[in-house]
């Protein structure tokens, strides 16, 4: 069998960028030296699914078969690794495929601690597959409660799954505190952070000691709602061998064209994130004093329970806002279908403003009693604030609120 370890990135180059450069420079250049043959400045799209050998197992380069890697995918992996200050990365066909790879790399029947408020698809996979089909012992815990976290540990806890900020309640988890507790409890437990909501620009969990950072590249990294992809970033050859072996065995590799789009997306991540953050801050402040709004959840507001942690842990407050409008399901549905600029759609992190109803859309697969306990009520709205002119975003929300929630005098 071929030695698959050759098929991953060249960490030396990622190291160089990590040590010496700022975020935007890494995002634009890491893993993207001009190509050796023609000097193309942009990474070429390598469509070949297989790579010639001079003699059996004597390869021209580290590539053999495209499920294990292509030069275009490799460029993305080096770049995202550098942006997250990690040594290695593996790209996947989706964020969910990245999640599956991690779960399939654990010892059988492991105990897994998972944030109680996570993306609906993560919740569904953990309950319906990890537990029901693969015999893992999954425990959902409020990770903002460190005592509850300490008490959840077992002999065979193999993975701690943190999402911060969480989806859709935008709760923040103190990554460093949880890493420290984990190391005291059990040295070999992996700590993973799903960093999708923050993006690598706002937060780098590897700097706080986590073992694996996961991204749904489909969100801020792709940035234009035209790529479905995922990524894992991590350190150490042992971890690389384990995760890479799972990834080639279970498939879930990204298309080369998507890797190209993801490389392109990373180049403007910093510029886009700055506008997402600025717009979201203005919209959240404005919504907070709006007479038709009951509550706004945004880490940049002083009313947010982890506002201080947000200032310490993140470089900005992000582009995601959740809010409760005054009314119930009927008002929420009327509001959502009255929005004209904000598009009613799942997903987040694109340049355009997206708005949705978690209880019936992204989190419909979460059992109703769990949603009720978490506070994902029928008047709960999630807004992914785009980079359009902020006045236009506010005007659109305002007219839709008036239509849906204003009582006739
Ligand atoms: C926080 C988070 N993690 C993971 C995923 C899954 O990513 P994908 O849709 O790329 O499979 C999503 C998707 O919405 C998400 O919001």
Automatic annotation (TrEMBL):
Its cofactor is pyridoxal 5'-phosphate. InterPro entries: Cys/Met-Metab_PyrdxlP-dep_enz, PyrdxlP-dep_Trfase, PyrdxlP-dep_Trfase_major, PyrdxlP-dep_Trfase_small. It holds the Pfam family Cys_Met_Meta_PP. Pathway: Amino-acid biosynthesis; L-cysteine biosynthesis; L-cysteine from L-homocysteine and L-serine: step 2/2. Its EC number is 4.4.1.1. GO terms for molecular function: cystathionine gamma-lyase activity; pyridoxal phosphate binding. PANTHER family: CYSTATHIONINE GAMMA-LYASE, TRANS-SULFURATION ENZYME FAMILY MEMBER. Belongs to the trans-sulfuration enzymes family. This is cystathionine gamma-lyase. It comes from Tetrahymena thermophila (strain SB210).
